[in-house]
Automatic annotation (TrEMBL), chain A:
Cited InterPro entries: ABC_transp_permease, LivM-like
Source organism: Acididesulfobacillus acetoxydans
Membrane topology: Multi-pass membrane protein
Protein name (Swiss-Prot/TrEMBL): Branched-chain amino acid transport system / permease component
Keywords carried by this UniProt record: Cell membrane, Membrane, Transmembrane, Transmembrane helix
TrEMBL record, chain B:
Nucleotide-binding as UniProt keyword: yes
Enzyme Commission number(s): 3.6.1.3
Biological process annotations from GO: D-alanine transmembrane transport; L-alanine transport; L-isoleucine import across plasma membrane; L-valine import across plasma membrane
Protein name: ABC transporter
Origin: domain of life: Bacteria
Entry-linked PANTHER family: AMINO ACID ABC TRANSPORTER ATP-BINDING PROTEIN, CONSERVED COMPONENT OF ABC TRANSPORTER FOR NATURAL AMINO ACIDS-RELATED
InterPro entries: AAA+_ATPase (IPR003593), ABC_AA/LPS_Transport (IPR051120), ABC_transporter-like_ATP-bd (IPR003439), BCA_ABC_TP_C (IPR032823), P-loop_NTPase (IPR027417)
The entry's keywords: ATP-binding, Hydrolase, Nucleotide-binding, Transport
Organism: Acididesulfobacillus acetoxydans
Amino acid sequence: MKVLNKKNLVILLAVLVVYGGVQAAIAARLIPPFYSVNLMLICVYVILATSLNLINGVTGQFSIGHAGFMAIGAYLSAIVSVKLHGPLGAAILAGGIVSAAVGFLVGLPTLRLKGDYLAITTLGVGQIVQVVFFNTNYVGGAAGFTVPRTVNWTWAFWLTVISVVIIHNFTNSTHGRACISVRENEIAAEAMGINSTKYKVMAFTLGSFLGGLAGGLYANYMYLIQPTTFSFLTSFNILVMVVLGGLGSMTGSIVGAVVMTVLSAYLSQFPEWRMVLTALLLIVVMLFRPSGLLGTKEFNLGFLGKKGESRAA
Amino acid sequence: MLLKLEHLSKSFGGLKAVADLNIEIGQGELVGLIGPNGAGKTTVFNLLTGVYEPSEGKMIFAGKDVGGLRPYQVTHRGIARTFQNIRLFGDLSVIDNVKIAFHQHAKYSAFSAILRLPSFFRSEDEMESKALALLEVFHLRGRAGEVAKNLPYGEQRRLEIARAMATEPRLLLLDEPAAGMNPQETRGLMELIRWLRDNFQLTILLIEHDMSLVMGVCERIYVLDYGMIIASGTPEEIRTDPKVIEAYLGEEAI
Ligand SMILES: Nc1ncnc2c1ncn2[C@@H]1O[C@H](COP(=O)(O)OP(=O)(O)OP(=O)(O)O)[C@@H](O)[C@H]1O
Ligand SMILES: [Mg+2]
């Protein structure tokens, strides 16, 4: 089996150690609530950042409304679990699918056009989604939607792993290379037989799907979701994670998501400082490493000797 | 006839870049398209490959109208091209440049890729070995892992041709393939072009300002001036045509 090479086995081992370690600590009640919330948020933001990176980094498009898709996933999954009493897995999946459908419907007309229409459209979608949930009493309106906590560490962790594996496997395939070629040079990509619109829409839809999953995870953990949670500021934060890590680098997005979430957690008492520090961090990185912490490169385990899959990114 | 352009015209505002062009190219021919700067040569390629829509006229390739198709659809029909101003995927490796051009022949879906089904590994292995074999032909195999933009200019031009060949075309359009090459590289390129035509049952239409190359490899030549064909024929006929000498070659070329 090619999947079970040395590199993948080492990664699998590391993943199991992280999962088991945290799980054991939770069972032994060693993790205070403050930390468990943030562990959960790290999972949510890792999915959000890596999926936005697929759109903005890998495919070179410019979406600035990712929180809108998170909101769709959050509210849809909440409806399925609270109103329809569906199981958690079905709720999260439903959120992802509806989010993907909205992404597809928005992306198809927008991504055919040349130029950065996607930025304007996604900004609009983010706002519209908020307004719609704000004015819908069925989901609690402005006061918010109360959702029982059914997500635990196991759900959050493995859903994150699955999302990251999906993104990695997609990116490192001929379909991912097609997306990258569109980013690199759209005219040349078309001349090489690549339907650029198709791959932009595909990346955007897959990114929206995963953003929706992250929303479902969030909604079924946080007890309460409110439209304001999914504001432009949240979209901006996700974008900062991606840019900090390096547009186009999946591992960079993971690092960006972890760093930013931890930073926000420690500065949550001082929201004004959080904004200042985020801006400062962004400026410093842009000054000294304009392509982000990792550029388009990936952390890899090349030192293990065995040749891995050839890298597209 | 593999390619037939009938009354092809293209205007940009008031400028007629291509005017009432008629060209016929048979299977396996090696044809040149020459003319002074701004004559409309690249515009002909852009029309053929769907970058621009013709203002008037028809383009028949392999018996089918290719007018109105998007560039990627034209490529799927079997027309591939290189660019006058090199358009490689500069930040990607040499081999990835070639693999991207194999994309339409890949035999697995995005779904199979995500699940890493056996079809993924089979098709990826096949693409890898096909890409390496192609790079071998172009003497670029040793460069497979290098970033494309770091290659010397001449090798970048060769890589562009290799990449176009990976789409498995029937008609190859080369836009000034020798631009920026030294005489030795140009001689190598001439042999390569002949070799490609003979080995891949390829038909080639090439634009070139380097007359040694054009006269050396082309069996037939069209001369374009102000968007119109002013002469066509064998290299010998073109070399001695007074209209061509006046418009393009100049007296010293005789
Ligand atoms: N997109 C465009 N918009 C407006 N004018 C254009 C466009 N593309 C080409 N032209 C004009 O059409 C004419 C033909 O250009 P083209 O690039 O086809 O010339 P060419 O024969 O390839 O010249 P060269 O040998 O310099 O490459 C030129 O006058 C050029 O300025
Ligand atoms: Mg030109």
